[in-house]
Write a structure and sequence with these properties.
The chain is of the alpha/beta class. Helix content is about 40%, strand content about 15%. The strands form two sheets. An eight-stranded parallel beta barrel has the order 3-4-5-6-7-8-9-10, surrounded by six helices. The protein has a two-stranded antiparallel sheet with strand order 1-2. Helix 1 packs across helix 2, helix 3 runs parallel beside helix 4 and helix 8 packs across helix 9. The radius of gyration is 18 Å and the shape is globular.
C-alpha cells in the first residue's frame, strides 16, 4: 500500500507515522492561543519535527465542538506565514488542516503536500479537484454537520456501519473527481459528531476500516471523550489516555496518528512495537507492531 503526497511517498507496511499538530488559532480546545504568533507556531513545528514527527499538520480554524467559523482571509492570514517558513525548514510533508478549498489551494501553492479535510462531507467537488491537480495527499474524514453543529444530539443506528457506508459513497465520488487512490487517507473522525460511546465503538472496530487498503489516520489526542471516561477536565493532562488510544489504534491497523505530544507518542509506540516484535519471535501474536 502506497501513500503519495506530491514529492513524498510512504510505503506500508512500515512503522506508524506520527503527525504533529500545530494550531495557529486563539480557540482550539487544547492549545488555543499558545501558537497564534507566527514565530511561536514555527518554533513549535520545528520542535515537533525534532521530536520525530513524520508530518506536520497546520490549522488556522478551530474545529472543536461549537466553534464559530472563520473567514478564508483570516484563516490564510494565520497559516500562510507559518506554513511558508516551516516548508522551507523541514524535510517532512506539511499538511493544511482546513475545510475551505480556497485555503487549501493557497496552502498548496505555498508548499503544503497534504490536505487534512474535516469538511469532506460537502457536496462541492472543488477540494477533491484541487488535491487531484496538485497530486497532494488527501485525508478524508467523517463528520456529521459542521464543527458548530456536530455535537447537537448525534445519533446512529450502527456508527461503524454508517461511517463505512460514508467512506464507500465518498470514495466513489472522490475518485470520479480525479483523485488517485494512492493519495487518499481515511479518518473515522473521533469526536466529530459522536458521543463518547460512539467513539469507543469506532475504536473497538477500527479493523473494519482497513478493507479499502488505504492508510487510516486517527486523531484522538487530548480529546474530550478521554476526559468523559477518566474525569480529567484539563486537556493538557490527557496524555496517558491519548497514548493508550494511539497504541490500541496502531495494533488495530491504523498507520498514522495525529497528536499534540510527538515525543511521548513515539516512545509509547516504540515500546509497544518492541514488545510485539518479541512476541512474534516467540510465536505469540504480536499484531501490526511486528518488525518490518
Amino acid at each position: 500500500m502506497i501513500l503519495r503526497a506530491r514529492t513524498f511517498e510512504f510505503a506500508f507496511p512500515r512503522n506508524p507515522l506520527v503527525m504533529g499538530i500545530v494550531n495557529v488559532t486563539p480557540d482550539s480546545f487544547s492549545d488555543g492561543g499558545r501558537f497564534l504568533e507566527p514565530s511561536a507556531a514555527v518554533e513549535h513545528a520545528l520542535r515537533l519535527v525534532d521530536e520525530g514527527a513524520d508530518l506536520v499538520d497546520i490549522g488556522g480554524e478551530s474545529s472543536r465542538p461549537g466553534a464559530e467559523p472563520v473567514g478564508a482571509a483570516e484563516e490564510l492570514r494565520r497559516v500562510l506565514p507559518v506554513l511558508e517558513q516551516v516548508v522551507a525548514r523541514v524535510r517532512v510533508p506539511v499538511s493544511i488542516d482546513t475545510l475551505k478549498p480556497a485555503v487549501a489551494r493557497a496552502a498548496l501553492a505555498a508548499g503544503a503536500s497534504v490536505i487534512n479535510d474535516v469538511g469532506a462531507n460537502r457536496e462541492d467537488p472543488a477540494m477533491w479537484e484541487i488535491a487531484a491537480e496538485a497530486g497532494a495527499g488527501y485525508v478524508l474524514m467523517h463528520m456529521r454537520g459542521t464543527p458548530r453543529t456536530m455535537q447537537e444530539a448525534p445519533a446512529y443506528g450502527d456508527v461503524a456501519a454508517e461511517v463505512a457506508a460514508y467512506f464507500d459513497e465518498r470514495l466513489r465520488r472522490i475518485r470520479a473527481s480525479g483523485l488517485a487512490p494512492e493519495q487518499i487517507v481515511l479518518d473515522v473522525g473521533i469526536g466529530f459528531g459522536k458521543t463518547a460511546e460512539h467513539n469507543l465503538q469506532l475504536l473497538a472496530q477500527l479493523g473494519r476500516f482497513t478493507k479499502w487498503q488505504r492508510p487510516l489516520l486517527l486523531g484522538v489526542s487530548r480529546k474530550s471523550f478521554i476526559g468523559s471516561l477518566t474525569g480529567e477536565t484539563n486537556p493538557a493532562c490527557r496524555l496517558p489516555g491519548s497514548l493508550a488510544c494511539a497504541c490500541w489504534a496502531v495494533w488495530a491497523g491504523v498507520q498514522i496518528v495525529r497528536v499534540h505530544d510527538v515525543a511521548a507518542t513515539r516512545q509509547a509506540l516504540r515500546l509497544a512495537e518492541a514488545i510485539a516484535a518479541t512476541a512474534d519471535r516467540l510465536g505469540v501474536r504480536g499484531g501490526p507492531f511486528r518488525s518490518r
